[in-house]
Specification:
The chain has about 100 residues and is mostly helical. Among the domains are: about 10-40; about 50-85. Helix content is about 65%, strand content about 0%. It has helices at about 10-45, 55-85.
Length: about 100
């Protein structure tokens, strides 16, 4: 490094180069600190990853479709069980034998 008691014209460039290097390093360090401070809120928001509205809506539609499909299958099972049972007419004893003829 250039250590000079008094600045001579031939060594002046070494002195100013060292001084400008320090200033540039301080500016670089200061800008890096400022950038880190300003970007920290943006990185804090990345931790809470939520689904996008369209993705969440699609998942909800999928769940509703699955629930509806399950209800449909249950209803079909019940109707198949009821189809085998004989049909009962509760008004059969109230009708006269001629009601079927016109």
């Amino acid at each position: 490094m250039c250590k000079i008691q008094r600045i001579e014209p031939s060594l002046a460039s070494c002195y100013f180069a060292e001084k400008s290097g320090r200033i540039a390093m301080k500016k670089l360090l200061a800008s890096a600190v400022i950038l880190a401070i300003l970007s920290s809120p943006a990185f804090a928001q990345l931790g809470q990853k939520e689904d996008e509205p369209l993705v969440a809506e699609e998942k909800e539609k999928q769940k509703r479709a699955e629930a509806l499909d399950k209800q449909y299958k249950q209803m079909m099972e019940r109707s198949r069980k009821d189809a085998g049972a004989p049909k009962n007419d509760p008004w059969s004893n109230m009708r006269t034998p001629n009601d079927g003829k016109r």
